[in-house]
Amino acid sequence: MRLTKTIAAWLTLLVAPLALTACGGGDESANSATPVAQTKAPDGKKWTDVVEKTGEGWYRQGNPNAPIKLIEYGSRSCPVCQAFAMTGVEPLREKYIATGQVSLEFRDFLVHPQDLGIALLGRCAPQEAFFPVLDQMYANLDAFNARGQQITDAIYAQIQGMNRLDQARTLMQVMGYTDFMKQRGMTEERINQCMGDQNALNVLSKQLEEAQIKGVDGTPTFFINDKKVAGAVGWQQLEPALRAAGAR
Fold first, then answer.
1. Quick one: which of 139, 135, 148 has its CA closest to 176?
2. Residue pLDDT tens, the chain, 248 long
3. Assuming Cys at both sites, which of 32, 75, 100, 202 could form a disulfide with 63, CB separation 3.0 to 4.6 Å?
4. HEC letters along the chain
5. How many domains does one find in the chain?
């Protein structure tokens, strides 16, 4: 895909000094543990409907006191992350989050040039819509990328002369993410606020630096109880690590 092939040309355009790295990562194993107990959600609720803010733009789904805390560092444009979102997230929710054993926190980690704008928009979704919007972004990724492939050299040349936030705003418009958010109730005024938020850009940059210090060097990268999971890029590798941590 063109947006992937041109990463080197964008290093100083869109996300510098933010991180740019490849899909895939992981180099430490989760420790084995005794089985953890299932926990009933509060009356009238399901754990999968419980979403809490954990930082400046990060959200956690599930039991806030779950003994197994799973963090995914992901790129919203990464095809490997998309594969996990389409095949692993539902069994994760049904088997482990719904039972109160595991909570899931998603953190944006920029890989491709368009990721800055996508992250800014995703972080601006209402708290209760954070994970539905994330799911739908992955479900529609092929359509977004198809529009990205149509970006002409002339448009690229125009973008090169813009600041980072204007570059991100333009990419979101031409790739269809702006219309996507409008269709889900976000006003144009709110979109403009999100895409022009210098403070959010600074916070995201700081959080990406912290992720790199923790050893995040690709997406998706998973942490279980703050320990990086070795070689887990999909559900086939992640579920055994959750079970080794005590999930049943």
1. 148
2. 333 334 434 434 444 445 455 687 655 444 567 999 999 999 999 999 999 999 888 999 999 999 999 999 999 999 999 999 999 999 999 999 999 999 999 999 999 999 999 999 999 999 999 999 999 999 999 999 999 999 999 998 999 899 999 999 999 999 999 999 999 999 999 999 999 999 999 999 999 999 999 999 999 999 999 999 999 999 999 999 999 999 99
3. 100
4. CHHHHCHHHHCCCCCCCCCCCEECCCCCCCCCCCCCCCCCCCCCCCHHHCEEECCCCCEEECCCCCCEEEEEEECCCCHHHHHHHHHCHHHHHHHHHCCCCEEEEEEECCCCCCHHHHHHHHHCCCHHHHHHHHHHHHHCHHHHHHHHCCCCHHHHHHHHCCCHHHHHHHHHHHHCHHHHHHHCCCCHHHHHHHHCCHHHHHHHHHHHHHHHHHCCCEECEEEECCEECCCCCCHHHHHHHHHHCCCC
5. 1
Q: Which pTM does this prediction carry?
A: 0.90
Q: Please give the residue range of the domain that contains residue 234.
A: 2-244
Going by C-alpha positions, the residue among 204, 197, 185 that lies closest to residue 76 is 204
